[in-house]
Amino acid sequence: MTSYADFQRAAQSDPPRIAMVLGSGLGGLADRLSSASAVPFGDIPELAGPTVAGHRGELLLGTWARQRVLVFAGRLHYYEGHPWSRVLAHVHIAKSLGARTLLLTNAVGGIRADLTAGTLVALRGHVEWTRSGFWREPPKPSPYSPELIARLQAAAAVDGFELPTAVYGQVTGPCYETPAEVRALRECGVDVVGMSTGREIQEARDIGLECGAISCVCNQAAGLTAGPVAHSDVLDVAAKLREKLTKLVERFLENRDDIPRSLA
After folding, report:
1. DSSP string spanning 200-252?
2. Which residues pair with 26 in a beta bridge?
3. Residue 196 in 3-state DSSP?
4. Which residues pair with residue 64 across a beta bridge?
5. pLDDT in tens, 66-80
């Protein structure tokens, strides 16, 4: 590990152009970075150590597919007791360290019938249920970049699979949704549901970052299967999807000609 001051200096001398956030059970993707330096979330003034299983809680800077990449291995959640300013701090950190594109990943429950466990999807929009009276707020243009969606789908095609798009529903957590909530989300046009990402993406877009997100469908949402949803099962499926997601991200980075290639 290195100090955050040294980490900042390294980013300033050779800045990343893309930042990634790795969701539940997906921190292993950070192992693809070479010549990486790392700092724990707890050593970064704006952040804190995560308390949720499957989140490493490290910020890394290194090279992947010849690109300079900033990686948040894990994220903070509102339900952990943090204020929204801390939950969203990584977005501002990414921009301050030089990133111009933000790619988020997460683990979700599938609501749409074709989105079963083991499916990867690219998000094209979201419904944000963490605000009181959210339905009264005027709609905003989608913060998800159509160009990034197209590039992600092209990367998936190289490896021989389709990457469907979906609308994400963000709920507060930490409890999984009830069947009644899932039915309500479906009526609002939501395809997958999780406890992050929506506010992160909107914050990132509002400060000028190009944004995209990949969801790993790790279970069917509550009420759509006979048994209960367990976090351990979510992590198991995320682990099985890790290799597929790693290849997708690697293809995406290899074809990002607009990101300056590292001289390292």
Report:
1. HHHHHHHTT-EEEEEEEEEEEPTTSSSSPP-HHHHHHHHHHHHHHHHHHHHHH
2. none
3. coil
4. 67
5. 999 999 999 999 999
Q: What are the tokens at 254?
A: 């290899």
219 and 240 Cβ atoms separated by less than 8 Å: no
Q: Three-state DSSP class for 47?
A: coil
Written as one string, the DSSP assignment of 101-113 is EEEEEEEEEE-ST
CATH class of 4-254: alpha beta
**Whole-angstrom distance, CA of residue 259 vs CA of residue 264:** 14
DSSP code of residue 37: E
In the chain, what are the domain boundaries?
A: 4-254
Query: Using the 8-state DSSP alphabet, how is residue 262 labeled?
Result: P
pLDDT surpasses 50 at 264: no
Whether the CB-CB separation of 75 and 194 falls below 8 Å is answered with no
Beta-bridge partner residues of 127: 169
Burial class of residue 8 (count of CB atoms within 10 Å of its CB; 0-12, 13-18, 19+): middle
Q: For strands 34-40 and 58-64, give the pairing.
A: antiparallel
Residues 182, 225, 232, 56, CA torsion sign: negative
φ, ψ (nearest 5 deg) of residue 59: -110, 125
Structure confidence at residue 262 (pLDDT):
36
**Confidence at 25, pLDDT banded by 50, 70, 90:** confident
**pLDDT confidence of 256, banded at 50, 70, 90?**
low
**Averaged pLDDT, 221-236:** 76
Q: Mind listing the pLDDT tens digit for each residue in 40-54?
A: 999 999 999 999 888
Q: At what angle do helices 89-96 and 198-206 cross, to 10 degrees?
A: 40
The pair of three-digit structure tokens given for residue 175, joined into one six-digit string: 């409890």
